[in-house]
Structures are given as C-alpha cells and as structure tokens.
Amino acid sequence: MAKPRETREETHFGYETVPLADKQGMVDDVFHSVARRYDLMNDLMSGGLHRAWKDALVTAVHPPKSDRPFALLDVAGGTGDIAFRVAEAGGTGTRVTVCDINTDMLEVGEKRAHERGLDDRVSFAQGNAEELPYADKSFDCVTIAFGIRNVPRIDRALSEAHRVLRLGGHFLCLEFSSVDVPGLDALYELYSFRVIPRIGQVVAGDREAYQYLVESIRKFPKPKVFAAMMDEAGFRRVSYRAMTGGVVALHSGWKL
Length: 256
Ligand SMILES: C[S@@+](CC[C@H](N)C(=O)[O-])C[C@H]1O[C@@H](n2cnc3c(N)ncnc32)[C@H](O)[C@@H]1O
Fold this sequence. Notes:
Number of helices: 9
Shape: globular
Radius of gyration: 18 Å
Distance between the termini: 51 Å
Bound molecules: S-adenosylmethionine
Order of helices and strands: EEHHHEHEHEEHEHHHEE
Structural class: alpha/beta
Helix content: 40-55%
Strand order of the largest sheet: 5-4-3-6-7-9-8
Number of strands: 9
Largest sheet: 7 strands, mixed
C-alpha cells in the first residue's frame, strides 16, 4: 500500500514560503531586533502619519469620558501606542490591557507607560493572539493595530478576538492595505522597497526586518477578503474604511 504523503502546512514570511510552524519564531526575531527603535522608526517611515491613523482608530473605539467601566484589549499592542491614546481619551473607568507575544516590545511599552503616569490604567501581558489568555466575554472592545498580518493563523486570531468580546462588543483592526490611486501606487511601491529597508538599516540596524515588513504588507489579504474573514469568524455589521489612498484600512465588526 502506498504510504500517505506527509503534508506540511506552509505560509508566507514576507515573500518567502515557510513552514507554518516556523513563522512565529521568525516574526519574534524581527520584533526582538527592532523593539528599541520601533517607535522612532514608525515616525520616520510614515512621516508621522501613523499618528493620524491611530487617532482614527481611537475615535472609533470611542471610550466613555465618564467613570463608566470600559475594558479594552489591545492585541499585538507592542510598545503601547494604542493603549496610551485610548487611556488618555477615556474617563476614569477606562482600563486597557496590552497583550503581545514579544517581551522586548512589552518591556519598552511598560517603561513608556510609567513615564506617562499611566501604570494604573494600562497593563501589559505576554500572550499569543491565536490563544488569548482571557476568559470568554471579558472585554468591551478589542483592537489590533498593524499586528494581524504578523500572526501565522489569522483565522484563529479573529476567532479569539470574537470569543473574548462581550455581546455587543466592538472589534477594530487597523492594518496596511492596498493602494489603488493611480500614480500614488507606483510612488508607494518605490518608497516601500527602495527607501524603507534603507531607513531600517541606518536607524534600526536591520535592513531585513524592514524588508519583511514591506513584503508582509503586500501579502496581507485585500480589504474585501479580510472583511469576509471577519464575517467567517462571527463578526457582524463588518465594514472597512480606506485611509491615505488605501495605504491603511480600518476594519470594524461587532459581536451581536
Ligand atoms: C508592527 S507591531 C504593532 C505594534 C502596535 N500595535 C503598534 O501599532 O504600534 C506588531 C506587533 O505584533 C506582535 N505579534 C506578532 N505576532 C503575534 C502574536 N501571535 N500574538 C500577539 N502579538 C503578536 C509583535 O510582537 C509586535 O509587537
């Protein structure tokens, strides 16, 4: 009898095809390498635009200004950018949990939270988006910004976000998308592949990490496909909004 062929699940790490089981380790190496320079790099690469994109996400989170309890989970929250913005926009009842797989990113985030006097409103925990260490229905809102394209099994991360949300809770995902404005697309391509890896080399000392980042953006599903994945995970009233000519999209879905 013929031996059954061994099946090895594969995925993309940037443009490379790699075993699914290897991707997370490779992603962790990238963020380990860039953690100390991560925030500076964001400003340099996006010309400060990431701040406006993140502000749009915070507006959509819409934390209450009052003392009403509001619990946000920021998955793949890294150095805390989204968490700080939401904590500062919300009232005294707002609490944010940053969950990220990478302790180097979390360490930078904890230090920044302390410097901002936000220790009591923002907490940091190590965890995998594919297997969140939280009970069902524990959060009013779940966000993930520029994180989901790094997660090997996106469908699992979406199901987990759905599981930990309370009924009526809001899921928001900010992610790079596809530029569809003639002229801007060619410019964006040139900038991504010629300039960003060079900035990565000079500022963060790691050209490859930033080559991965731009490649991973190109491999991320188109917004309509990602919206269908959100629907598949159980989210309702799924929608998205393109920003900056499609450089970024803000996806929204509800647990109803
Ligand atoms: C590009 S950074 C985004 C950080 C932050 N959300 C921001 O907007 O500045 C991507 C983050 O995803 C995290 N990450 C990658 N895979 C993850 C996983 N499986 N579970 C949780 N976090 C993950 C990385 O450690 C990294 O901190």
